Amino acid sequence: MSVLRLEGISKHFGAIHALEDVSLTLEPGEVLGLMGDNGAGKSTLVKIIAGNYRPSAGQIHIAGRQQEFHRPIEARESGIEIVYQDLALCDNLTAATNVFLGRELTRSIGPLKVMDYAAMNAAAARLFKELKSETRPRDLVRDMSGGQRQAVAIARTRLAKAKIVLMDEPTAAISVRQVAEVLNLIRELKRQQIAVVLISHRMPDVFAVADRVTVLRRGRKVADKPTHLTSPEEVTGLITGAIHAA
Amino acid sequence: MTTDDTKDFAVLDEAIAWQTHSRLGRILAKQSFWVFVAAVLACIALTLATDTFATSQNLFNVTRNFAFVAIVALGMTVVIISGGIDLSVGSVLCLSAMVLAILMNAGNPLWLSALAAIGAALVVGFVNGVLIAYLRIPPFVVTLGMLSLARSAAMVLSNNKMVFQFGPDEKLLFWLGGGSTWGIANPVIALFLLALATGFVLRWTRWGTHVFAIGSNERAAVLTGINVRGLKVSVYMCSAFFAGVAGVLEAGWLGGVTTNLGQSMELSVIAASVIGGANLMGGAGTVFGSVVGAALIEVIRNSLILLGISTFWQGAFVGSFIILAVAFDRFRALRDESK
Questions:
Q1: B181 to A138, B129, B176, B187, B294: CA distances (angstroms)
Q2: Do A136 and B6 lie within an 8 Å CB cutoff?
Q3: How many CB atoms lie within 10 A of CB A85?
Q4: Which domains, from first to last, does chain A contain?
Q5: Nearest CB to A106 within list B2, B206, B220
Q6: Chain B residue closest to A175 (CA)?
Q7: Strand, helix or coil at B106?
Q8: A72 vs chain B: nearest CA distance in angstroms?
């Protein structure tokens, strides 16, 4: 059963039609590359899935059940997590504290509830190991590479037991070697049967990890193809409009 | 730091050596550590240069004098870590002392008056916090307004008169603020206990972690579901609480309360926090640092008096230290970047 199914999603901001009749399905363990030019509707679509916006028309089904999100927290409770482009991490805290931020583990000493750093460090270390990342739980995020920061942000979604991870331009501002690290993280999520929506401008990254590519142009879906049945040239044509639809 | 650093450890010993080295390095990189060294060196120099500094009476006075600023600096450090600033602490201290004085003057017991005084301070902190967190008015503006408002309230309450009679519990109040226990001034003992509590809360509670989080990346904190607005209100109430406590103690020490009590104290308090390593951009600061910062300012003031230098120089020294401490931190950051 598909983990996410969008049916005829439209979003209008006054006279502007940001999205028009977009349908989409996502299977567990599937990596979907969501592509399109600036203003094509990628971030609007992601914001609808994440509960930031409500669609003007259309339905969202999560694991077969129709859902209506009024607030982002409701989407999170249904297992949807976003990894933001800037990762939303606190530089001055350790990797483990960032992973557990807002969900800290505590233990009771008499009437006091104190932070259980040992348990959080151990749990974070397990998550990083699962992701095959070299990130150390006690290191400050300030001292980390771009790839390690991504690992922290992704470990956070693992802690939340996310079923669907939305990643917004994860490889936009990092070095070539770090890109490889991030792509490996995405492969690890896939292996653990988590569905990933990868929003990216970078053609090589999408073709390296995505099972399927969806292209949006001016708010409409113009293509939805398995990656091995298309090519970077075709996708580029679809994004720019040189190729009308595929 | 790249991942190569991890892979390069051939044996465990190397990894342990790296860890230990970095722990020592971390202490050496702390601004509060160097300010502490500066304060200790200043004390040694003064002990050698004068025969008046290291007397028990002088040390008693020095520690008691800086205790008030340091207590208020504890709350200020929390506010600064959260990415804010509280300019109203001097006025809140005055308001608290005035509420205490008026109530005790009217014959109320110390405990009730002190509770009311700290309660008044907490109300001011609550108003500060609500305006900052819910109406999103910049902390600088809100607390600048409150600096004026709270002192004005103290003047209205007292009709701008000095209060120096404290009713039946007068002796108890004077002991609390001016007395000593085992040779240590009571405000210093209060400072010690409050500093321990603040340090514990910042390091070991979720609240403390969240204060550091909002100071570093407020949006991230919101996204993780932290109640950022409620947290901010509590942070400004925390700052007002410490100002309120210091007001009660200082009233007891001075034996009288006037409406210019705590005037421009906010500047010394912010100076103490900043010298001690609190970052005005938010996200960094320590309890130890702010206490040492307050101590250093007082040692400088004391040394000028003992060495017979005009106290007009005090501002120059304190000002230089503020800039020096922050410049030191900048140099370290620049060095880290070029690594």
A1: 42, 36, 10, 10, 22
A2: yes
A3: 14
A4: 23-91+144-240 (3.40.50.300)
A5: B206
A6: B2
A7: coil
A8: 9
Mean pLDDT per 10-residue run, chain A (246 residues)?
A: 86 86 89 87 86 86 84 83 83 90 86 87 86 83 83 84 86 77 86 89 87 88 86 85 77
pLDDT digit string (tens) for A165-215?
998 888 777 777 778 888 888 898 898 889 999 988 888 888 889 999 998
pLDDT at B337: 61
Distance of CA A224 to the CA centre of its chain: 18
Cβ contact B3–A147 (<8 Å): yes
* Per-residue pLDDT tens digits for B125-183: 999 999 999 999 999 999 999 999 999 999 998 888 888 888 888 888 888 888 888 87
Burial of A217 (0-12, 13-18, 19+ CB in 10 A): buried
Q: How many CA atoms within 13 Å lie on the side-chain side of A40?
A: 22
Give the CA diameter of chain B: 75
Strand A80-83 and strand A164-168: the pairing is: parallel
E-only strand ranges, chain B: 180-181, 184-185
From chain B residues 185-214, the ones with a CB under 8 A of any chain A CB are: 203-206, 209-210, 212-213
Bridge partners of A83? A167
pTM for the whole thing? 0.82
- Strand A4-13 and strand A16-26: the pairing is antiparallel
Chain A residue numbers with beta carbons less than 8 Å from the beta carbon of B83 are none
Three-state DSSP string of B253-272: HHCCECCCCCCCHHHHHHHH
Inspect the interface and report whether the beta carbons of A93 and B216 lie closer than 8 Å.
yes
Query: Tokens 């557990």 appear where?
Result: A100
| Strands, E assignment, A70-144 | 80-83, 106-109, 112-115
C-alpha–C-alpha distance, residues B239 and B261, integer Å? 17
Q: Which of A212, A191, A158, A168 is nearest to A47 (CA)?
A: A168
Check if the interface score ipTM surpasses 0.95.
Answer: no
Nearest residue to A80 via CA among A67, A97, A89, A90: A67
Q: Which CATH number fits domain B32-338: 3.40.50, 1.25.40, 1.10.10, 1.10.3470?
A: 1.10.3470
Q: Measured between CA atoms, how close is A224 to chain B, in angstroms?
A: 31
> Which of A73, A84, A92 is closest, CB to CB, to B284?
A92
The values of phi and psi at residue A78, to 5°, are -90, 10
Contact call for A101 and B209, based on CB within 8 A: yes
**Which chain A residues are within 8 Å of B215, Cβ to Cβ?**
92
